[in-house]
Design brief:
Keywords: Oxidoreductase. This protein is α/β, with parallel strands linked by helices and about 300 residues long. The protein has 8 helices and 9 strands. It has one domain: Rossmann fold, CATH 3.40.50.720. The chain has a 7-stranded parallel sheet with strand order 5-4-3-6-7-8-9, sandwiched between helices. It has a two-stranded antiparallel ribbon with strand order 1-2. The longest helix has 22 residues, at about 155-175. The chain is globular.
Length: about 300
């Protein structure tokens, strides 16, 4: 076993949060949450919601697992209906759908490759056919490849990383934008590495810096339409991206060098997305919330 710390809910311990993880690796991107040991914690039982997103429709990319799943669950508790966009992790997506529907929300699953601009248009078409409207877009999906030197990053890898992490954000934003109205919200997942870098994630870090700049520029572009654009910059969070990209020995110590000495869990980010999606943040645009275990960053 590995050391644990308790996660306290309203009156009792619901589940323990691991401080470290067993060495493990998945030989595919994106990874599968169903194969992770232990499974990430996506649902905070002490978070009940208060209808802050009642009647709204949210599209979340990468919503099948990890941070996206946690955000989908929190949005469902707040009354939103969900569209979960993912590549091919069908079992994970079904699990997310069942959790969202448990809390009374409707959930549409859409599988496909967001690197293709035409698929973003299909996502919007299916969403409008199902729900008739769109209020919130969460651009959240990503891939990363661990390479110790820039000399090991092929042109194919560079193109794959940027098309997945950056181009797709542009494509889906373009497709959704005509259907957003004043008060709508776009939220983009960047990363702590956009600010501090990572020596073995050079192309991934570059994409997260691009997302940061895209978020700030887009917020200025859409102010006159009353559409807010913000971001969340996670630190080390236990998601399928970790065992599917890092060597097993790095997985076993993932997050221990953060100020809080352990990785975060997906549910710990979800309230930041709820805040940025709802009217609580109606005077906030072009900003990034840092959920990173206490790391100090300069913007």
């Amino acid at each position: 076993m590995y050391p644990m710390v308790p996660y306290y809910g309203r009156k009792k311990v619901y589940r323990e949060i691991p401080l470290t993880f067993p060495p493990q690796q998945q030989n595919r991107q994106p990874g599968l949450e169903s194969l992770m040991v232990p499974r990430p914690i996506s649902d905070n039982p002490s978070y009940s919601g208060s209808g802050k997103l009642r009647g709204q429709v949210a599209i979340i990319t990468g919503g099948d697992s990890g941070i996206g799943r946690a955000v989908a669950i929190a949005f469902a508790k707040e009354g939103a209906d969900l569209v979960i966009v993912y590549l091919n992790e069908h079992a994970d997506a079904k699990d997310t759908q069942s959790r969202v529907e448990y809390y009374g929300a409707r959930c549409l699953l859409i599988s496909g490759d967001l690197r293709e601009e035409s698929f973003s248009r299909e996502v919007v078409d299916q969403t409008l056919r199902k729900f008739g409207r769109i209020h919130i877009l969460v651009n959240n999906h990503a891939i990363q490849f661990y390479q110790k030197s820039i000399l090991d990053i092929s042109a194919e890898q560079l193109d794959h990383t940027f098309r997945t992490n950056v181009y797709a954000f542009f494509y889906l934003t373009k497709a959704v934008l005509p259907y957003l109205s004043p008060g709508s919200s776009i939220i983009q997942t960047t990363s702590a590495v956009a600010y501090e870098g990572h020596e073995a994630l050079l192309d991934y870090s570059a994409t997260k810096g691009a997302i940061l700049s895209f978020t700030r520029a887009l917020s200025q572009s859409l102010l006159n339409r009353g559409i807010r654009v913000n971001g969340v910059a996670p630190g080390p969070i236990w998601t399928p991206l970790i065992p599917s990209s890092f060597p097993p020995e790095d997985v076993s110590t993932f997050g221990v060098d953060s100020p809080m000495k352990h990785a975060g869990q997906p549910f710990e980010l979800a309230p930041a997305y709820v805040y940025l999606a709802c009217d609580d943040s109606k005077y906030v645009s072009g900003q990034v919330l840092h959920v990173n275990g206490g790391e100090m960053v300069s913007s």
